[in-house]
Amino acid sequence: MDDKLDAIFSALADPTRRAILGRLANGKATVAELADPFELSQPAISKHLKVLEQAGLIRSGREANSRPRVLEPAALKTVAAWIADYRRFWDQSFDRLDDYLSKVQGYEND
Amino acid sequence: MDDKLDAIFSALADPTRRAILGRLANGKATVAELADPFELSQPAISKHLKVLEQAGLIRSGREANSRPRVLEPAALKTVAAWIADYRRFWDQSFDRLDDYLSKVQGYEND
DNA sequence: TAGCTATATAGCCATATGGATATATTGTGG
DNA sequence: CCACAATATATCCATATGGCTATATAGCTA
After folding, report:
1. What's the CATH number where A46 sits?
2. A41 Cβ partners below 8 Å, 6+ apart?
3. B59 and chain A: CB distance < 8 Å anywhere?
4. Is residue A97 a part of any domain in this protein?
5. Where would one find coiled-coil regions in this protein (chains A, B) (predicted)?
6. Which nucleotide lies at the shortest CA–C1' distance from B15?
7. How far does chain A reach from its first CA to its final CA, in angstroms?
8. How many domains is chain A built from?
9. pLDDT per residue over B44-97, tens digit each?
10. Which of A7, A83, B3, B76 has the largest CB neighbor count within 10 A?
């Protein structure tokens, strides 16, 4: 799972790739469509797509001449699950845990 | 905000750094304490800490001889906020949005 | 089959990253 | 002030990353 997170976070660290995911949130798209908003070469986009796919964030389809991409939510869910463990540090709705933690931390910290 | 996400995701892409955050979730810790679980040199850990700090994920304190680190939840909250936009793709509790989206996507996809 | 369209792959290059060792810096205690 | 402890900074090195151009591959369509 750690390896997965490595790949996922690493894929998400690039703004072009996040923008691509944003586009795919509206539905599947061809490589050309995904490339359109950017001033990057087509191979550069293909490379980004490969990174996203290897991280499990998207999938490739096949449709006539083109290979449309779709979002693969599971990978994002993995991230959400990871970050959920930290939610208590900022979210009011985790008050009881928060109280508990501030006691524990207060003990350790002072 | 995009720049922030770049730095944050990039920082989170390394398992050592995620482990450090995990340790800091139990309360503040010195560099030596943070380095202890790893078979890495002290400078390597300092480098990781610098990356985490520049991403805003941790802060440095000062206490006698040592510079203890603490978690900085805001940066993680930023990630949670980003990913929340995708929550509808996997979470049942977002059913209405999900329905809406599947209609929209169905339209675009078929 | 020939040619066009869509996309992938191969190289190549510059910069970034993660690690190591050696050394500098800063604070504490004697 | 000295010596030690804790941590940071400076190099250096190997590998990874992101971009480009050129070229290969696959599927239509005439």
Report:
1. 1.10.10.10
2. none
3. no
4. no
5. none
6. C18
7. 35
8. 1
9. 999 999 999 999 999 999 888 899 999 999 999 999 999 999 999 987 666 555
10. B76
